[in-house]
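Title: Request for sanity check on AP-1 complex subunit sigma-2 prediction

Description:
We are preparing a figure and want to confirm that the structure record we downloaded matches what your pipeline produces today. Could someone re-run it with the sequence below and paste the raw structure tokens into this thread? We only need the token string, no images.
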Amino acid sequence: MQFMLLFSRQGKLRLQKWYVPLSDKEKKKITRELVQTVLARKPKMCSFLEWRDLKVVYKRYASLYFCCAIENQDNELITLEIIHRYVELLDKYFGSVCELDIIFNFEKAYFILDEFLLGGEAQDTSKKNVLKAIEQADLLRSVPLHGVIQPVSYSAWCELASQHGVNQPVSYSAWCEPASQSVSMV
């Protein structure tokens, strides 16, 4: 997968994840072109289209479009399943996800995506495993760290996680998120 975009029926970008290095100018151009192209298509049209040297796979859920660009040799149906699995994960976490959940909890939407996809490929297809990792990260964020400065290395983070009863650390991306709300100084 090259990238994933979430946008509204009005064309407002709600989430973007790029798995290839592109300039900001190129990202904006691609986003504008794809949003216009997808929104111009009729609802009964196929959810796959060839665009530039890529294939675009999209699906509309309520007021949001989930749009992915894949290489020509990649499977469109698997990409549709990846989109659907991401929506299922969002639904499980937020309880019937809506556009406002993405707007006001965008960092959690990105975190869920990062737990599910790694480098544009599904790293774990089990909803149960992904949700467990997210719950563990939420648990770690809720633990007050009185007098503890945020760990500076991954190994220090793993040690801190085990001290708080998390046997298997979630992911490196969970550790990298700022923990300023849960850290207090003595």
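Thanks, this matches our download. Residues 76-94 form the longest helix (19 residues).
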